[in-house]
Structures are given as structure tokens and as C-alpha cells.
Amino acid sequence: MNRFARVRRSLRVFAPLLALLGLLSLVSCATRAGEGASSSVADTTGGSSAAPAAPELVCTVQTVEIDGFVSTYTEKQKAYLADAAKNATNYAEGNLELSRPVPITLRWNVDFEKGENALRYFVVRVWTKSNKSDAKEFIVGRSQREFRFENAFVGQKYFWDVTAVGSDGTTVRSARSFFVTENRSFRFLSVDGITNVRDLGGKTTEDGGYVRQGLIYRGAELHKEGTTVLVSDEGIKALRQLGIKSELDFRTATEAGSRSNSVIGTGVLYYFRTLSGSKDFTSSECASSLKKIFAVLAKESNYPIYLHCMVGTDRTGLVCWLVNGLCGVSEDDLWRDYLLSNFATIGDKRKPSKIQDNYVDKLAAAPGKTYAEKVYNYLKNTVGIPAADLDAVIRIMKAAPGTPAENYTMIRTGHEHYPERTYTEIEKSTASYPGIRVKYCSICGAFVPESISELPLLQN
Domains plus CATH for the chain? Predict the structure, then answer.
């Protein structure tokens, strides 16, 4: 018998014994693993992972498509914007609140395969930039199937989706959808507690450029006499969602009181720059005030800015006329922007005659081939505002001809969220569903995901 035959015979003899020893070893290892295992389903033995638990929530989320352009204008706003610029008082006379836009209602449906009771809340995400750098997220209660999106840019394509979040952290996201907002060159805004709020941007310029939206907001006062806050908590949240970084106040010390910080909250600079002598545009007092105001407007880190006087019409109207005029907005649109204050509760209607002699005629008489040149030359040569400050305002506010439409709007850069002290209840608790509450960022108004918590179940 050769050497290989003897090996094969030995293996036939010992194979059953080796198999029995291997089986006993496996049983022993399994017993030790069971004795030493914790309650976690993620615990592993020998480097292999346990199978993941099946998700509690299995569903499909579908957005409801929006056909055509979406309008944020009321019928009365549309009627005036289609009429001659100086006919504003045919539609509003400054005694009713008609200055707010129409919110955009986003809707979705959910089809459940299982786990309907495991659904906790939705997150609605809206953005305009291709890189989603301006994406905003809103938390919505699980019983809701729609969300009112407010203060949209005009003439803008928006993308949006909805994510369902389950009790075990499962997320189910819808496909991306989109809508396009109508553009009539004026962006009205809704800020609870105050009136006459709108974006300075949105207008085309006579050379084919565009005044960027999202940089300067105009409106009425946020507080008075130092201690009385006029804007509500919801209004403050709306201002923070706009990304306001500075408040520029044109009132007198008597009107504003002794307050030295912005009521908008943490991270917002407060510039108190009384606009004196605005009824006499040629006065040295007015010139001195405008130089200080344009020094603030020339600093890019101050943007976005909320600027105001008392009702946001006269002193505010002057500064807005000058900024838009510098950018090359037509006189017709400048008139319309001033007279739109009649759609707010400003106490008395405004007519063209109120400002015609004050500054409109003086600017028109300044040297320059275009209206933008006239405004520039008047502010530089007569008022004495440094050319560097005027150039900076134009550079910040104006999108030059040929600029991609995606860059017509501006966003505030990122920051670390600073949660508010109090929670906001998103949906109430029931006997079978723990309600959801969340804190919002006191800087930008976005909800802080880490703050989401559940309320106790109600007792039967």
C-alpha cells in the first residue's frame, strides 16, 4: 500500500469523529454567545452584523403638482399693478390692510403599506438654487397634508419635496416637484403685527439688469418708545426666516425711545440713523443723515437689511427711491413703489404731490444721460455721499444684464443654530399619538431638528 492510499484510509476512519467534534464546538460557541449577549439587536458575534429591523413606517409620499404660474398677488394688487403708476388711490387709500401677499399652498398625499400609526411628522423642503444652498425646511404635523408657504420670491422657480418621518427614524421622501411664481416686479410680504412690508428688489432696470430680491426690506416700525413691541412673535419668526441681519431705523429719538438693540433678536445689528430734514431734500441736515445711512448700506456684511421709519412711507420711501434709482429702475416703477404704501394702514393716503417738489424734481434736474446717472450725480456732488459708497450699493443690489436668473435672489450665509428658549407645539398629543414639539432658531427662524421631542400620551 502506497503513502497516498494509507492517508485516504485514515481519513475514512477519522472523518465521523472529526465531524462530531466540530458540531460540539459550534454548540459550545452558540451557548457562550447567548449567555454573553446584550438586549441590543445590533449586537454582533465574530464580526458579522445582525439583520436590520424592518421599518415601522412603509408608505409612499406624492406631491400634488401645480400647473402654470402661481400668483402671490391679490386681485386688487393685480388691478393696480396693471394700471397707471399714479392711480394707486383708485384702489387703496392707506386705511385698510391690503399690502399682504397670498400664500402658496403646497399639498401632498400619503399611501400607507403599513405603519400609519408610526408616522410622527412631515418635513417640507423648499429651495431655488441648483446646489440647494438656500433650502428651507418646515416641520408639519402628521395629520396635515398641506403647507402654506409664505413670502415667496416673485418671478422665481421653486423646487420642493416632502419627507415623512416615522417613530423609529424611518424617512420616506417624495419625488421633487416645482412651481414658478408670477412676476409683476413687486414683492409684497406678510409680517404679523406690522404693515407695509415689501422687498426693495424684483424690478428690472432700464439697461436690462435686475434689482436683487432678498437684500433690502422696507416696512413699518417694529417697536415704539423703546418698550412697546409692535411685531408679534410670528412676525419676528417671519423676519428671521427672511434672514434679516441688520435693522436700519430712520426715526427720531422721541419716536424710537431708548432701545439700543433690535427686537428681531440675536445676531441682528441695530443701526439708529435718524433721517433729519427729509422734507427739505436740499438741507445740510438731510445730506448729513443720508451720508450716514449710505455708509451702512455700503457695507455688504450688513445685508439683508430691514429699514423703516414709523409707517415705512416717507423717510423710508426717500431712501428706497434713491437706492432703486441708483440701480436704474424706471421713474414709473419708482412712483409705483412709493404709492404702494396706500395699500397699507398708514393713516392717510399718499399722493404724488407729497414728494414731487421735495426730491423728485430735484433729481430730474441733475446732470446725466440716464435717470440712474442723475441720481448718482446728485447724491455724489450735491449731497456729498462718497462715490465708493454709491458704487458699493449698486454692486450689492444690482444684477447686471446677462446675469443668470438663479443669481437674481440672494441668501444669507450659514450659521450655527441658536434655539429659542420655548418650544412650539406642532401637533397635539392624543391617546394613541404623542404630540410633537420643536424649538426654532432665534437667528434664522428655521426649526432645530435636534430639539424635536414628543409629548406624553393623553390618558383615556
Answer: 58-183 (2.60.40.10), 191-408 (3.90.190.10)
Quick: pLDDT tens for 229-278.
Answer: 999 999 999 999 999 999 999 999 999 998 899 999 988 999 999 999 88
* Alpha-carbon distances of 428 from 141, 223, 425, 432, rounded to whole Å: 9, 33, 7, 11
What is the full DSSP assignment across 200-226? S---B-TTS-EEPBSSEEEES-SEETT
Which residue is it, cell 395699500?
Answer: 343
pTM of the model: 0.86
Beta bridge partners of 454: 436
427672511: which residue's cell? 242
Contacts with 338 (C-beta within 8 Å, 6 or more apart), sequence order = 313, 317, 320, 321, 350, 355
CA distances from 379 to 65, 150, 276 (A): 49, 36, 16
Give the whole-angstrom CA distance, residue 422 versus residue 439: 7
Which region among 1-15, 158-172, 281-295 has the lowest average model confidence (pLDDT)?
1-15
